[in-house]
Amino acid sequence: MESEIKDKIANRTVKIGILGLGYVGIPLAQRISEVGLTVLGFDVDAERIRQLNGGKSPIKHIPHTQIEGMKAAGFEATDDFSRATECDALIICVPTPLNKYREPDLSFVTATMDEIAPYLRTGQLLALESTTWPGTTEEVLAPYITEAGLTPGKDFYLAYSPEREDPGNPNFHTRTIPKVVGGITAACLEAGVALYGAFIDKVVPVSSTRAAEMVKLLENIHRSVNIGLANEMKIVAERMGLDIFEVVDAAATKPFGFTPFYPGPGIGGHCIPIDPFYLTWKAREYGLHTRFIELAGEINAGMPDYVVSRLVSALNAQGKSLSGARVLALGIAYKRDVDDMRESPSVFVMERLRDWGAQIDYSDSNVPVFPKMREHQFDLSSVALTPEVVAGYDAVVLLTDHTDFDYDMIRKNAQLLVDTRGKYRGQVSENVTRA
């Protein structure tokens, strides 16, 4: 069976199913289509399927032309999960959020497995890419395989390969980002390496799915901890009257032993705010308390409150109260020049301002209308920026430093400008406050 799937990969007749057509699934499908392999995409969102089958991209930084190219290469999107049986390989790319208790929520993974389980067959390869705790592939996915009458490593192949997408980053693409792969057995690993090697430049095999799952957590915990350090240093530097961005820039000139991480209003995206808690939750099973990791999470989660406190102080200095103040949030996506709202710290800042009685608006051309979110609700649309509009707010808070903002115009016209991104570093002005 192993040679059969490897032969299909080698002779380019393998059909690959992508389960979950979002920020990870679409770029993956696009890359697979690009090398001439057949791709079938699965999702439960009827509107997303309609868009993709119509050649339209539902994600801003992915152009329509890429979707049209996928279509021309034979890509199709469907919500008919019985078609999973058509696929030789299935790759799961669904969200793995936290629940309200900050515990792992694998409901999207298990719901996907419930959908495809009746249609699994001999000779298939199943790979999970969703971020999760070490042991998930063995403990959660493998039972579905055995219950289907199949045996991982003998007549079915099961692997884990953590996603490594960085939306909006022009320097890295799905093809060029090395892919870590772990298998339940040696045969599963060989099949997984063969599959990903067909469309990724470099594949990095590891000893097990548990090791591959831990790799993803380490990567993002590393970022979370260092961003937490930068955020704490920002608070200390501000109290001392120092500009942390100047300090980080100068430290970054050291050619060894230092990697620059920059502070902000918090952390966002699906990975960095979420992944550390997957490990801290699993570590408790082993009687371990990951204090260092959790402390970084607490610091990062507290940054929206710090931003609000800085705004309150700046308004007070002008004889104004936050309650009843008109505040404009600049940028609500979690990072520059994307439309991705997942765990955006901007939203947490906006909620705190609303709770304190401020009148909130936002401007973000990447997000024309505030989207429906599981836990956050605002009935707002993006405000167009003009000198008159900017001047009409008691305060403007820069939360995401999109490149299409006219920063000069904003600084000149804002009554009060709170900068959380260091965009105005080195620019001394009575109306600019660092946060």
Task: Give a short synopsis of this structure.
With 435 residues, this protein is α/β, with parallel strands linked by helices. It is built from 15 helices and 13 strands. The protein has 2 domains: 2-207, NAD(P)-binding Rossmann-like Domain (Rossmann fold); 224-434, NAD(P)-binding Rossmann-like Domain (Rossmann fold, 3-Layer(aba) Sandwich), CATH 3.40.50.
Describe the structure.
- The protein is α/β, with parallel strands linked by helices.
- The chain folds into 2 domains: 2-207, NAD(P)-binding Rossmann-like Domain (Rossmann fold), CATH 3.40.50.720; 224-434, Rossmann fold, CATH 3.40.50.
- The chain is built from 15 helices and 13 strands.
What are the segments in which pLDDT stays under 50 over at least 5 consecutive residues? none
- Counting helices, strands and paired strands, the structural category is alpha/beta
Q: Determine the number of helices (DSSP H or I, runs of at least 4 residues).
A: 15
Globular, elongated, flat, extended or rod-shaped: what is the shape?
elongated
Query: If you compute it from the alpha carbons, what radius of gyration comes out, rounded to the nearest whole angstrom?
Result: 24 Å
CATH class of the largest domain: Alpha Beta
N- to C-terminal distance: 59 Å
Side by side, the strands of the main sheet go 3-2-1-4-5-6-7-8
Secondary-structure element order, N to C = HEHEHHEEHEHEEHEHHHHHEHEHEHEE
User: β content, as a range?
Assistant: 5-15%
Give the overall pLDDT as a whole number: 94
